[in-house]
């Protein structure tokens, strides 16, 4: 984990940043003065305090030695490493996940991948495992499977999934995993609170090609929309914009196959995997 333009939302990284600022200001030091004292650049201190860079173990130890903190920074840096799987989540996703668990209805449009709520463990591992260490992958997979419990809990939300056919055909993993994933879609579609339909590739251009998004509906709060662009999450609450997404979703459902036709297409693609 390195530097980036937007702050990390992971609590451990935010806590380290706040602690560093507090100790530096208590000592009456500017960022430049602290950097010169410890042998770092002022830009590095700025990045860490802004929660945009991940402090190293050596940096944490140097801070503990200088401020005589009895290991405060080293323990916080250790906590960052232990929870580093949270730091790679897109900004905005943590808040979205909290809202998702509270929703009474969820409407999902997915363009290129099977949505996380629908993924099998093996498919999820294949998606998450790209350029990640094993420990981080396993933690994230476990959290994703835990998140899926909202579909089968007592009083679950009503969930509509509209997928582009490309999401079924993208070979994220080997044939066995893909077959299992598509069979899982058929099983979930039999639940009374879940509906899955597919926009066939023969449709050509339609509004969904602009990107995936999710609409959350609540019993006692306005709807919100969540989407991701280039790894950045956006939680949209502006009523006019949310209403536009609702219209777009309804339009795309008109482009999708009926439920039984969608099941037939899923079955057909599944059989293509052998």
Question: How would you describe the overall organization of this protein?
Answer:
- It is built from 13 helices and six strands.
- It is of the alpha/beta class and 274 residues long.
- The protein folds into two domains: 11-87, Orthogonal Bundle (434 Repressor (Amino-terminal Domain)), CATH 1.10.260.40; 93-272, 2-Layer Sandwich (Endonuclease, Chain A), CATH 3.30.870.
- A six-stranded mixed beta sheet has the order 3-2-1-4-5-6, with helices on both faces.
- It is elongated and about 70 Å long.
- This is Helix-turn-helix domain-containing protein.
- Residues 20-63 form the HTH cro/C1-type domain.
- InterPro entries: Cro/C1-type_HTH (IPR001387), DUF5753 (IPR043917), Lambda_DNA-bd_dom_sf (IPR010982).
The main sheet comes to:
6 strands, mixed
**Please, what is the average pLDDT?**
91
Q: Separation of termini? A: 39 Å
CATH topology tier name of the largest domain: Endonuclease, Chain A
- Report strand %: 5-15%
Overall tally of domains = 2
DSSP helix count?
Answer: 13
Low-confidence stretches: none
Radius of gyration: 22 Å
Helix content: 40-55%
Organism: Actinomadura violacea
InterPro entries: Cro/C1-type_HTH, DUF5753, Lambda_DNA-bd_dom_sf
Domain HTH cro/C1-type: 20-63
Protein name: Helix-turn-helix domain-containing protein
Briefly characterize the structure:
With 274 residues, this protein is an alpha/beta fold. It has helices at residues 11-26, 31-38, 42-49, 57-67, 72-82, 84-87, 93-100, 121-128, 134-147, 165-169, 175-188, 239-255, 259-272; strands at residues 105-110, 158-164, 194-199, 213-217, 224-229, 232-236. It has two domains: 11-87, 434 Repressor (Amino-terminal Domain) (Orthogonal Bundle); 93-272, Endonuclease, Chain A (2-Layer Sandwich).
